[in-house]
């Protein structure tokens, strides 16, 4: 089944000779940019050079906000931040095909599989501040009887959340990744998150929660299946 969401074609990034049930064009990073690929392939020296560049930029920010980057508490902040932001965006270095490696099984199970309350923290691409929340992922295996190792649903969510995101796209990317990995009858993803860009600046609405969902296949076409999913997500 194809998804209703068009996407740019992505270059195959899997090393030649490896095989995987994911179609070749879907290997890799989701929606990569040119610089994503160069980061993925960076040598240790190139990586150090990147972090140095980020640290220089952070020093500029500190100066511009009216701070003294040379005062004791801030001296190592640029380097620390450079390392932190590389970690917080490490999803750009993870190939989905590696994440899912050896975790797709044939299993005689045709009922819904649901993992909920997966903690997520990501960075909003508009303000580069965090949004955090919980995500639930469900699927119903297809005729191929393929299932995913349960921990892999959380790993898929982790991979995509460690990139710059908007919540709507994060939700979609996770659903499409599951769809492409095992071609189930349907996939459902729902995410609830609090955006610091909303709660600590601008409109300042503390406690506001943004909910996004993505329904594919039978979750999209069958109201009963969708309702069962939503009941299970709420059942806590
Ligand atoms: Zn934002």
TrEMBL record:
GO terms for biological process: folic acid biosynthetic process; tetrahydrobiopterin biosynthetic process; tetrahydrofolate biosynthetic process. Pathway: Cofactor biosynthesis; 7,8-dihydroneopterin triphosphate biosynthesis; 7,8-dihydroneopterin triphosphate from GTP: step 1/1. One of its GO terms (cellular component) is cytoplasm. Residues 1-11 have a biased composition (Pro residues). One of its GO terms (molecular function) is zinc ion binding. GTP cyclohydrolase 1 is the first enzyme in the biosynthetic pathway leading to folic acid. This is GTP cyclohydrolase 1. It comes from Mycena chlorophos (Agaric fungus).
């Amino acid at each position: 089944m194809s998804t209703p969401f068009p996407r740019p074609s992505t270059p195959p990034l899997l090393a030649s000779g490896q095989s995987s049930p994911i179609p070749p064009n879907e290997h890799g990073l989701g929606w990569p940019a040119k610089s994503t690929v160069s980061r993925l392939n960076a040598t240790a020296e190139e990586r150090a050079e990147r972090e140095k560049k980020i640290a220089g930029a952070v020093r500029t920010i500190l100066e511009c906000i009216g701070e003294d980057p040379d005062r004791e508490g801030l001296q190592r902040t640029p380097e620390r931040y450079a390392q932190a932001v590389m970690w917080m965006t490490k999803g750009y270095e993870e190939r989905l095909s590696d994440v899912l490696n050896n975790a797709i099984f044939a299993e005689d199970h045709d009922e819904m599989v649901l993992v909920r309350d997966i903690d997520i923290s990501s960075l909003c691409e508009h303000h580069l501040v965090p949004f955090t929340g919980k995500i639930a992922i469900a699927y119903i295996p297809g005729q191929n009887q393929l299932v995913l190792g349960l921990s892999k649903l959380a790993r898929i969510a982790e991979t995509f959340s460690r990139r710059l995101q908007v919540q709507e796209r994060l939700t979609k990317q996770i659903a499409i990744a599951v769809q492409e990995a095992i071609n189930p009858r349907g996939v459902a993803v729902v995410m609830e998150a609090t955006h610091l860009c909303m709660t600590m600046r601008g409109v300042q609405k503390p406690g506001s929660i943004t909910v996004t969902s993505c329904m594919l296949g039978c979750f999209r076409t069958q109201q009963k299946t969708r309702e069962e999913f939503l009941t299970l997500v709420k059942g806590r």
